[in-house]
TrEMBL record:
Originating species: Rouxiella aceris
UniProt-annotated binding residues for glycerol: D122, D172, H255, H273
Keyword Mitochondrion: no
Protein name per its UniProtKB record: Glycerol dehydrogenase
InterPro entries: ADH_Fe/GldA, Glycerol_DH
Organism domain of life: Bacteria
């Protein structure tokens, strides 16, 4: 008999200026906090964070995030938190910062508060982290017994981040329903080890519809650094809908191929998570033998928000066949999710699909 599992954060709050309410919500969970952010993010938010925590009488200790969600960084910050005797953990920033903070909270068995400063990934709401080596190579997924206690998203902060990161969040979110449908089709398990629920599939579908309907106008608004109803809808899709969708309905080819890219060196690692997921999504569509018109629709949309759709834009032009197969083999390793798409795929199948995406996209560029 199938087991259906649905998991979500305790509380999700989104809106322009909500960073000023952070302390009120943190005080519900603890009276002292380890605050983790990289130095750039901290420069942007420290004044509002400090004032909000001070008003709520929550003491805190700030520590800088060193850039990689690795076992050594998690251990370093966990030991510091123990020495400070803090009772909660707050993470501010992008996906790798937030994944690290979730792991710290798990190590300490403490509440975790997630404050994304960019709407660039679906990491904030999930009960898992993507763990990399110190060199940035994908290592494993780390799973937790609960989702974050609070996810607080200030859209006024998010629109001031580079528009490229916002577009990357849209690309990451667009993988949600495509991967969820593959998981359901193959009778595979979600990231919470259950069959996809009706709720999860509905959320994943709503994520895709929201992004295709308002993604371009929201992108243009963020380019102008203004918060509009379209921006609010897309931030919610990038963060909440995509997070709930991927976790409860599952991952398949797009994210596995993203992880496959970590197997090779080069300028591809200057791309964002979402940019690599975008190409992984197109590659999954090719592997699924989706209609030409459908693949073209996605390519045109990605290009409208300046996401990469060719090997040249992925910094893979001229890469040796053996390296493309290496990407495919890494995507197909036992700990990843390509098998949720098709358990018979080989590294060579993925390599061929990577090249096919490039050929289709370049053909469309000539037509347009």
């Amino acid at each position: 008999m199938s087991k259906f599992v649905y998991s979500s954060p305790r509380k999700y709050i989104q809106g322009s200026g909500v960073i000023n309410e952070l302390g009120k919500y943190v005080a519900e969970l603890g009276c002292s906090a380890l605050v983790v952010a990289d130095s750039i993010v901290w420069e942007i938010v420290h004044s509002a964070v400090k004032q909000s925590l001070d008003v709520a009488e929550v003491s805190f200790q700030y520590e800088v995030f060193n850039g990689e969600s690795s076992a050594s960084e998690i251990h370093r910050l966990s030991e510091l938190a123990r020495s400070y005797k803090t009772t909660t953990v707050i993470g501010l920033g992008g996906g790798k910062t937030l994944d690290t903070v979730k792991a710290i909270a798990d190590e300490l068995k403490q509440p975790v508060i997630i404050v994304p400063t960019v709407a660039s990934t679906d990491a904030p709401c999930s009960a898992l982290s993507v763990i990399y080596t110190d060199e940035g190579v994908f290592e494993k997924y780390r799973f937790y017994t609960k989702n974050p206690d609070l996810v607080l998203v200030d859209t006024a902060i998010c629109v001031n981040a580079p528009v490229r990161l916002f577009a990357s969040g849209i690309a990451d979110g667009l993988a949600t329903y495509i991967e969820a449908a593959a998981v359901k089709r193959s009778h595979s398990l979600s990231m919470v080890e259950g069959s996809p629920t009706v709720a999860a599939m509905a959320i994943a579908e709503a994520c895709e519809k929201t992004l295709l309907t308002w993604g371009k106008s929201a992108y243009e608004s963020v380019a102008s650094k203004v918060v509009t109803p379209a921006v609010e809808a897309v931030v919610e899709a990038n963060t909440l809908l995509s997070g709930l969708g991927f976790e409860n309905a599952g991952l398949a080819g797009a994210h596995a191929i993203h992880n496959g890219f970590t197997a090779i060196s080069g300028d591809i690692h200057h791309l964002t998570h979402g940019e690599k997921v975008a190409y992984g999504t197109l590659t999954q569509l090719v592997l699924e033998q989706r209609p030409d018109s459908e693949i073209a629709e996605y390519i045109r949309f990605y290009r409208s928000i300046k996401m990469p759709t060719t090997m040249k834009e992925m910094h893979l032009e001229g890469v040796a066949w053996a390296d493309l197969v290496k990407i495919g083999n890494q995507a197909n390793n036992e700990g990843d999710t390509l098998r949720n798409l098709d358990s018979t795929l080989s590294g060579e199948d993925v390599a061929n699909a990577l090249l096919a995406v490039d050929a289709i996209s370049r053909s469309l560029c000539k037509i347009n």
